[in-house]
Design goal:
With about 450 residues, the protein is mainly β. It has 4 helices and 28 strands. The longest helix is centred in the N-terminal third of the chain and has 11 residues. The radius of gyration is 21 Å and the shape is globular.
Length: about 450
């Protein structure tokens, strides 16, 4: 049984002692040093091995090619021991070199095109979305892959739901019309972007892309569901961003709408948590919270975070991944802290979360870790909870001589190296475990690959 609550209580206590919380970078190891991979894909400790699950350009069952830029991902239980992986692809509209259809778009059947979200007037269709992969751990082979969401863009992270779906988040605020900017290069958009889309893990083909507009239009990063209430927490990848929650009208039925709110700190309106120029929040400091209703959440202007801050919401330094830990939520701020090398926060919901009684016993926010120059983990991005109770985090840093790595954080706050990217200078992303805890899946984002890691994981 996952003792996730114990982990987060322990790491919060350990964070008060930086010498314990962060190991020296020269001691980057699990229980044994990493061994160099002769195939130069991923370095692992002695006794561990990997198989390639998904690779950019490989043919899929629907006649398309595997797109690149693998990002957020979740694992679901399939039939007869299979694992279903739903994976985001963080692609811009004109990334033809790594898209699933690229120059072959005109030849696609109308039955497929009609399910895309944005066809770009059939000139520059949005190339982001998700793939679904059926993986057999027994044979260590991929048995089937297909495009499951199409016509979206910059699909970064997302979140797994308790009802068996993946929430795919667009880290975009693309406008309708022709984008002639340096980055747009003549992109035609028929629809606005910046939404969350839901993909059932049970889908066997491309689903109809429907934006969940009540969940807000902004540069989404990740999502996490509070299982007992159905509330969805959301992060935003901006230098001065908000931490959001979505209270659905009907739990588990997000398409039926709901209410979007932003986190605020009681008695400290518009609290800045960055710690860039001064210490605004101390490690292990716990702050009582409240939630602020947001209006016009599907705005024409990319100012939701600014309007939320003006109403008193707390601001963060690039909120990225989310990890559900029992009834608590952990999330990193990739460039938070005095060294701008990252922070990890913990949100503990109220026992009356989302109800009229919430302020009788408010939720609270705690800064549980902050990276410095000697930290093992730098610029934490995607993260997950391991079956043995540790937090496993992906690095997304350019200042890393060993390339981006997977780093484990034990309940006492100490850290160790799980794996190292030997393939490229890319970030790692999408870390998740199979439901039986035997296989860890992770993405090498660029050019695009998923690997499955097995071995003697801790008991």
């Amino acid at each position: 049984m996952l003792n996730r609550r114990r982990f987060l209580q322990s790491i919060a206590a350990a964070a008060a002692t930086p010498a314990v919380t962060f190991a020296c970078r020269s001691n980057r190891s699990l229980v044994a040093p990493l061994r160099a991979d002769p195939d130069r894909i991923i370095d692992l400790p002695q006794g561990f091995s990997y198989s390639v699950v998904s690779r950019i350009g490989n043919p899929m069952a629907d006649g398309l090619a595997v797109p690149g830029a693998h990002d957020g991902m979740a694992a679901f239980a399939g039939d007869n021991g299979r694992v279903i992986l739903v994976c985001n692809h963080e692609l811009a509209p004109l990334s033809n070199y790594s898209g699933s259809y690229g120059g072959n778009y005109p030849s696609l059947p109308e039955t497929m095109k009609s399910r895309f979200y944005d066809r770009g007037s059939d000139r520059s269709p949005a190339l982001g979305g998700t793939t679904t992969t059926i993986y057999n751990p027994a044979s260590r082979k991929t048995e089937r892959q297909f495009l499951s969401l199409g016509g979206t863009e910059w699909n970064c992270d997302g979140g797994k739901t308790p009802w068996g779906s993946w929430l795919s988040c667009e880290e975009s605020f693309g406008e309708i019309g022709v984008d002639n900017s340096d980055t747009g290069a003549g992109i035609t958009r028929d629809k606005r972007h910046g939404y969350v889309f839901e993909v059932p893990a049970s889908a066997t083909e491309l689903v109809k892309a429907v934006p969940l507009k009540d969940m807000g239009r902004f540069e989404h990063e990740a999502a996490a569901v509070h299982e007992s209430t159905g509330i969805v927490y959301l992060t935003e990848d901006q230098w001065h961003c908000l931490f959001y929650r979505f209270i659905p009208n009907v739990p588990g039925k997000l398409q039926k709408g709901g209410r979007l709110q932003a986190l605020g700190i009681i008695d400290e309106p518009a609290k800045n948590t960055h710690n860039w120029n001064r210490v605004d929040i101390r490690v292990n400091q716990s702050l009582d919270t409240y939630w602020i209703d947001l209006e016009d959440v599907d705005s024409d202007r990319n100012d939701l975070r600014l309007r939320g801050a003006a109403l008193g919401a707390a601001t963060f330094a690039r909120c990225e991944g989310l990890a559900v830990a029992g009834d608590q939520i952990a999330f990193p701020c990739t460039i938070g802290g005095p060294a701008r090398l990252g922070q990890v926060f913990l949100y503990k919901p109220s026992p009356y979360e989302g109800s009229a009684r919430e302020q009788e016993s408010p939720g609270n926010l705690t800064l549980i870790a902050e990276a410095g120059e000697k930290s093992l983990l730098k610029n934490c991005d995607n993260l997950t909870m391991a079956p043995w109770g540790d937090l496993i985090a992906c690095e997304d840093t350019e200042d890393n001589a060993d390339h981006c790595a997977l780093v484990g954080i034990r309940p006492d706050g100490s850290q160790y190296l799980v794996a190292n990217n030997a393939y490229s200078d890319s970030e790692l992303a999408g870390v998740c475990f199979s439901l039986d805890g035997k296989t860890l899946f992770v993405n090498i984002q660029y050019p695009g690959m998923t690997v499955a890691i097995t071995g003697p994981w801790p008991a």
